[in-house]
Structure formats: C-alpha cells, structure tokens
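ok trying again, last paste got cut off:
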Amino acid sequence: MSMSLTRRQPIDPGHYGIAQEDLPPMEQGRFDPRDWFKPATGSDAPDTSTPPGLRPLELEIGSGKGTFLAQHAGLYPDVNFLGIEWAKSFCRYAADRARRHKLENVRLLRCDADLFIRHYVPDHIFSQVHIYFPDPWPKKRHHKRRLVQADFLRQLHRVLVPAAEPDTTGGENAGGPRIHIATDHVDYFEWMQEHAAQVADIFDRRPFVSPRSAGEGELVGTNFERKYRKEGRPFHGMILVKRP
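nice, full thing came through this time. structure:
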C-alpha cells in the first residue's frame, strides 16, 4: 500500500522527528523514550515533562502522514504521543506536520516497530497502543511479516502500564491499558482474531470504539481509511484490554 505526498513546501521535522540512527547502541540496553518529550533547547514550551513520565504516553505504530496524531493529540494536551513510521518520507512529513501544528506532545520515530519494542522499550511505558491499517502482507508466503501476531502482542503487553483493576466498559476513555487495532483487510482481520485468541490469558477482547478525533461516520479517520472508504471497503477493529 502506498500513498503519495502532496505538500510542496520544504519539510522541516525539527525536534519532532527522530531517526533510527539516532537511537543509542543496542548493546546499551533499553532506555526511556519519555525523555524525548522534554522541551527542546531554546523552546518556549513549558517544561511539563520533568520528571519523565509525568504525562501518560501512547504509541501509534504505522503513523503514515500523521493524520491520526495531528487530529488526536490536540484533543489530549496532557498525554504524550509517540508515532513510529518506517517510510522515511512519511515520517518526516508527519514530524513536520506536528511542528506546524505546534504539537509539543507528539514525536515521530523512523524505525522498525518490532525492533524498537523488543530491544529498546522498557517495561510498563505506554498507556495505550494504536495500530491502524497495518500492511496486510496478503500473500501467504509473506504472512510471517505481519505485525499483529501473538508473540508481538505479548511484547506489547510487556510495555503497557500495569492494569490496576478490571475494565468492563471498553470505551475510549475507560480505565485500563489497551491496544486499538483496525484494518480494511478481511483475511488479515481473521488472522488478528486468531492471534488475539492466543493471548486471551493476558488480554480481554472488546468491540472497537472510534476515537474522539474521528470524523462523523469514520472508524478512525486516517488517510488510508478515507482513501479506502471511497472504494467502498468494509472496516474491522477490536480493542485488547490488558488484564490485571
């Protein structure tokens, strides 16, 4: 799946963009990405992230051009959002978008999400994880490349904050660390359900609830969704709530 960039002005990621080569050597072990949200040197923004972790931190995997973050982060100024995107042009565009919207609670990382989660992220960091329209890798021989797999869901369980008590509502603002997943690909959604069933010991599955930032009639409101909606594709989603 690919989408073109239409912005013609120069791209300036500023301090909102972080590249994989900027990460510390892997042999140094895991580090706290919440440090990235301290105001940049020379910034007029108040230092509200000292000590790191003062704000909840949410993760979006596969941010694309940053549409979800641009819409959503502004509604939650007391929450920090880290977006991961592998495509360099998209990641730079999304970081530039955050800069233009002055979203100091957003950072974009160009990195392989699986590598970052497994080798760099410490335990109990994220309050929520968003995975919207990941690459379905439709050919059977490529299924092993699919992001949503039981083993990876267990990794996400590790990096989600502890669940304090049972969550029985499943709403967007309901208590409980969770993973939001959405796709337009029927076969991939069946795969997701199978792998979600394999982690039922640590996650409770709930119906998908659209975020506040979604437009009327939208599931999430990403660029991919808006493109596919015009094609008449159906959408599927679920929420996995971390069990206490």
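cool. The CA atoms of residues 65 and 94 lie 5 Å apart. The chain has one domain: 52-242.
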